[in-house]
Amino acid sequence: MAIDFFWRIPTHGEPSSHRARTPFRGDWFPGNDNLRQAGLGGGGADGFTYIDYLAEIARAAELSGFQGGLIPSFPMTDEPWAISALLARETSTFRFMIPFQPGFLNPVVAARMTASLQRATGGRALYNVITGGGGPAQLWWGDSAGHDDRYTRTTEFLDVVRGVWRGGPFSYQGKFYQVEDAGLATPLSEQDFPEIYFSGSSDAALGSASKHADYYLTWLEPFEQLREKFARVHEKTALLGRKIKCAVRVDIVARATEEEAWDEVRKGFDAVDAATLRQFLGADGGDSVGAARQRGNRPTTLNSYKDLITAPNIWSGFNLLRGGQTQGIVGSYQQVAERLDELVQLGADAFILASTPHLEEAYRVGEEVLPLVRGHGAALLRAA
């Protein structure tokens, strides 16, 4: 069974390691104008931009065996659609997973944008559909819709995108979208429809995913919880006469030995300030079920990085190091590959991997870990 591996493209800038806090690669760090303009030894720009750095990461991942990359979308990033178009000119086969929240785009415009990108890149665009976690973060985008309404809107959005993609005339009357005799013109309507990776852990999310998603995407969770979640989404999809694959998004720290990997984590944890630790242990806003499931795996007290080890090679403090998801995999190259293989046995068909710094780690993970995942998986199948 072929397993797809995607890498993460840090569109918000990044530090040089998990131990550092100030990002100096890329230029998303307000107040650090001296870093933003750094370049020549005597001062002044040298012509190497943040896009050049992102292009290096995309090329490194492409060379190292990744099928494509996730282009993150947050208030402190550039627009993924624009970044994908730019990086497509810097790569040959690299696929671009574009995350977006459907409520912020007209579905007909989204279909036209995507088909144009597909036509220009030879079909290298994918969707990562995010419905949003509610709370202040959702209001930043100007979206006050309730949790279940957001998923109803997502379902309608994808109904319309699929409908107009066929060329029309397509009409639709929903709660959030109304379309009359719409449809993409040739040759846009002839492009391959992008694969859809769909995130969300609530029943409303699983219902929407079962109708439209090619891949159900989840953060790493305790393995038995993932087994249950995968079973639920397969069951809901089967009721509609469809099949769905599953994908896991996970950060990793992989080194030649387990001791080296945990030492990297320890140094990163030791550099975390007290305020960040208090925020980590406190309550979070929003109504995201997935985020709540992540919070449920936190300890009540935190004195050492070891307090966050929840299972062999699983550490639940990654969002202390860079934000985002909490749980990730730490270990030797072989151990990380074995944990990924276990996830394959649970039902994972694809992975979005990440590690800091993304440039060097793309080579490390692609050259040292990915071949072991495939080899170990083949050995398991032969043994079975």
From TrEMBL:
<dbReference type="Pfam" id="PF00296">
    <property type="entry name" value="Bac_luciferase"/>
</dbReference>
<keyword id="KW-0560">Oxidoreductase</keyword>
<dbReference type="InterPro" id="IPR011251">
    <property type="entry name" value="Luciferase-like_dom"/>
</dbReference>
<dbReference type="GO" id="GO:0046306">
    <property type="term" value="P:alkanesulfonate catabolic process"/>
</dbReference>
<keyword id="KW-0503">Monooxygenase</keyword>
<feature type="domain" description="Luciferase-like">
    <location>
        <begin position="45"/>
        <end position="349"/>
    </location>
</feature>
<dbReference type="InterPro" id="IPR050172">
    <property type="entry name" value="SsuD_RutA_monooxygenase"/>
</dbReference>
<keyword id="KW-0285">Flavoprotein</keyword>
<keyword id="KW-0288">FMN</keyword>
<protein>
    <submittedName>
        <fullName>LLM class flavin-dependent oxidoreductase</fullName>
    </submittedName>
</protein>
<dbReference type="GO" id="GO:0008726">
    <property type="term" value="F:alkanesulfonate monooxygenase activity"/>
</dbReference>
<dbReference type="InterPro" id="IPR036661">
    <property type="entry name" value="Luciferase-like_sf"/>
</dbReference>
